[in-house]
Amino acid sequence: MADTMPQSEGTPGTAVEATRETLTYGGNAANNSQIHRRDGAMTNADARAPRTVVPIESSLLIAEAFDQAQVTELRHSVTSCAHAAGLGGQRLDDFVLAVNELITNAVRHGGGQGSLRLWRRAGEVVCEVADHGGGISARRLDDHSRPAPDTAGGWGLWLARELSDRMEVQTGEAGTTVRISAAVASPEHAGRRPTE
Question: Does residue 39 sit within a domain?
Fold first, then answer.
């Protein structure tokens, strides 16, 4: 089953759909996916493909709303669940840091609160963070360069992209949803980044 970002409620051609952008980035170990234009919106999904958030065979580990007061506790929960799902060592540390950047961005730039869902599916751990902010500009999404060392902000999306195997972003006026994933190494490959 293809795994794609959820569509917002609305019919094709509505203002909600016309302002949505979906971009898929390959992290260190993934191939970049193609981006297609449909009805003024970018998406990496086939127009007729059913849109799902979590495939039926997935194992949901966390589904929780958060605000600034829950960030630390949520990060600890993500660490425990991702470890139990098979991530370990540097892979676990990288994934948790990427998730932390996304939840911090949701609090700072996405209206002060958000929601997080973490699940395991065949061979990987996936985390999705959503907020109700004003969206991310196309310029910001298209900029994959490392921020300057003396830059105070702008590191969150870059770090999340670099520290995960795959990152998808759906953004628009109604908010942003970012999904990252990390492959779970088989026991004989534990401690090594997967290669493609």
Answer: yes
Q: H helices of the chain, where?
A: 15-18, 71-84, 89-109, 138-142, 156-163
User: Where is 25: in which H helix or E strand?
Assistant: strand 21-26
Residue 196 placed within a domain = no
Q: Is residue 52 part of a domain?
A: no
C-alpha span between 93 and 88 (Å, rounded): 8
Q: What is the pLDDT of residues 154-182, one digit of tens each?
A: 778 989 999 999 999 999 999 999 999 99
Q: What is the CATH classification number for the domain harbouring 25?
A: 3.30.565.10
- Host domain of residue 32: 15-46+58-189
* Ordered DSSP codes for 122-141: TTEEEEEEEE-SS---HHHH
| pTM more than 0.85 | no
